[in-house]
Fold these 2 entries.
Entry 1:
Amino acid sequence: MVGIGLWLAKRGVRTLRDYILAGGRLGTLIAGGTMIATWFGSGTVVGGPASLGYIYGLGPAIMFMLMPPIGIAILYLLSEKIRGMYRYTIPEIMESKLGVGGRIISAIIIIIAHVGIVSYQFIGLGYILNVTTGISTELGTIIGAIVIAALAVSGGLVSIAYTDAITAFLMLFSLVIGCTIAHSLVGGFAGAAAKVPPTHLTITGGMTIPALISTCLPLLLLLLGEMNMWQRVAAARESLVAKRAILMWLIAALIVGPLVSLMAFFARAYFPEMPAGMSVIKWATVMPEVLGAIFLAGVAGFIISTGNSYLLTPAMCAAVDIYKRVVRPTATEREVFIVTRAIVAAFAIFAYAIGMYFPSVLAIQMYSYTMIGAAITIVLLCLALIPEKITRMGGISGLITGAALTIIWDAVLARPYGIHAALISAPLALIVTIVGSLLTRSKA
């Protein structure tokens, strides 16, 4: 991946548009492949369904992975509108209605959330290097950070998109092989069911309904307002290509979710004592060596591609929405190009530090997803669906409410009753956006 990515970077990156949108020339297979590989990364094979399936059972993991198909279907319906609205970043869209203040606030929120998502891509690659070489997870995480940052700095979306297409199909094949072997080793579903805790066989896995809903909701909200996915819709060569690529992504979501969930569930029966984040990766150690190598290559590819994308996104926001828009409006495209690459490297260091702070991948995942979902997605969808109803003050108030409540609920109050912030911050952000718009509109 790194070799191909560097080769593509040297040949295909000439302008800022090449770096950010791959020149807007992606075909169906490449656009679809990069959507798949970007969306399914460490959050899938280390966090999300992997951790939930291991800790709580198959029910919560499957319910969590039902969110992407729902969100993808909505994006399919909104694809034409997305292509019409999108240029380089989502904060640019925010400025059209919310002014410069809205653009800067949304850029800061995206930076904080995406750097968090990058942090557990580093950790996921660290797990793989630990399994394959025996080096410590900590050292593996540092190496993972260097590899991911190097590829993102060099080629941007050009190098990411084309390697993603290779990775996506390798990963789908790897998961089918991995799940088949795991199923055989545990004696099928019945064999696994006899060895896991009784709560693992229930729909909620022992979680309360509010806790389960608040765990699943951030994933749906993230997908609907995720800049990486809007970027890929815009990077497709034409609208029909974008829609076909989204359908490829939808099909992959219906395959990947159940396979990862089952592998984590089987792992609880076969490897009863280990970190939840290792539940899918650990299967490689009991596979025939060639199949284990292919499986880990596929998983590593997913993680690297997602890390690249989520590292590039906050750097673009910092360079385009803050540096170019506020700090140095006279900056040339070439200068912004160089600044973006420098910021990618700086954010890689920041992401590594965040990964060392949080207790688990799942904890970072829920926090980062909710930062995007409760603030960016809520306001963005309001602007896309009812733009004439949203005022500057209403939209900015919604952004601040979603982000602030997420920080207060998760970091300050430490998730009362085991409920994640999304169940509180997203509805309140929506209410504040709409009510604030109504109040400021009436005053005008």
Note: The two ends are 55 Å apart (CA to CA).
Entry 2:
Amino acid sequence: MSRTNRTIGPHGLKAIATIAGITVLLLLPAFWNGYPVFYFDSLDYISLPYTWKIPIFRTAGYGVFATVVLPFNSIWPIIIVQSALLAYVLLEARRILFPDLSAPYACVILAILALVTGMPWLASIVMPDVFTVPAVLLTLMLAQTEIRLGTTRTTVFILLLALACAAHPTHFALCTGLVLCIFVFDKLALYHWPVMRMHVRYAIVGVVLGIAATVGANWIASGKVFLTPRTTSVLTMAVMAENGLLQEFLEEICTDPEEHKSVLCPYREEIPHDANEFLWHSSFFHKVGGWDAMIKESPWILDEIIDRHPIQFARTATQLTLEQIITFKTGEGFRTMVGFLDLELRTYYAHENAAFMAARQQGYKDVEDSPMEAINRVQGPFMLASLPLILVVVVLAWRQNDRWKLTLAGLVTLAYLGNSFICGAISNPADRYNNRIVWLVVLTVLVLLPPLIKAERARTK
């Protein structure tokens, strides 16, 4: 099917019904649970609409989105709205990015994704991770040049991209990197590479609006102007502690009378070799002055580490990125939240406290006790297999000179790698970081690989 100069029509009742159906599919984990699912970070997001306060290590974008709770005084609207937005983006992606995908096969693919990836769990949890894939898809749809979107659809896409970028600081970093990759692809097309011509102006507008929205939300919630959490360098320093590079650096400067001393020097023997323990569970963190002291210390310490040990720092970042690439289990942190955020439920959502307490999630002392272990035994192989298979898609599309499939698969692959670097090397590898995007890799493989295999068989006969 030729993609050139095609125009897609407006949504009708059928599209609305489709969005509603996908939304229900996405909310199945919440229905099974009996209440929206929570992660530890959800605490700050469900309270912000009432307190307008954010911790020093958080940004306010998703918390502002969570104000959808206010007219209803219920947490359900958060996951309903985010699921409906994801459903809408998926419907548009089928029309624009996968125009040859039939409706029956699209339904099959959605069912497969619901079974073998964390897609519905991401939609059912009160967390900004649900916006990662929409951020990528919206960037790709705004960058394509061969389907006329129209003014209304373009405006909606830009606003949704801004929302997705504002939801979490890693999203605008991811989309900025993706825009740069799209720009490079466009230039490569001029040199007759088998990729599509694309433009980045609308995607840039969406990302810039998202950055502005983030800064504005942070200012409203904290009275301070900032884009990323002021603790980002502290998170990276914790990663350096886990790999021993921080301790090695401190040993150098703390024992040399000519060196500038760090407030960490008296406690360098107490620094744990675990990033999470470093940040959340170690008494040494509070001995040196907590977040305020760490925020002052971490920037110059990281600069010095990079300056003195550039190769070791680069090697560590590479190792962490590679580790993050294959770290993507579903349901990280799915355990009881009693004793963690039940005070906020009783304070701001008192009439839902009984539902919260009765939810299945509260019955599991730890994630290992929950059904997530069995779910990941099923999902893990499928998600892992998608990583080499998308490279097969890239190779076959290149061999067949299929510019659109090569462009799409190539950019999705780069988005996955970029997310692995942003999250793994900076914040330390964690399952939820790549679980939020690996399902896009699975989706791309399911849509693009079968026709490429069919075309390859026909080509080699």
Note: The chain has two domains: 9-228+329-460, 232-308.
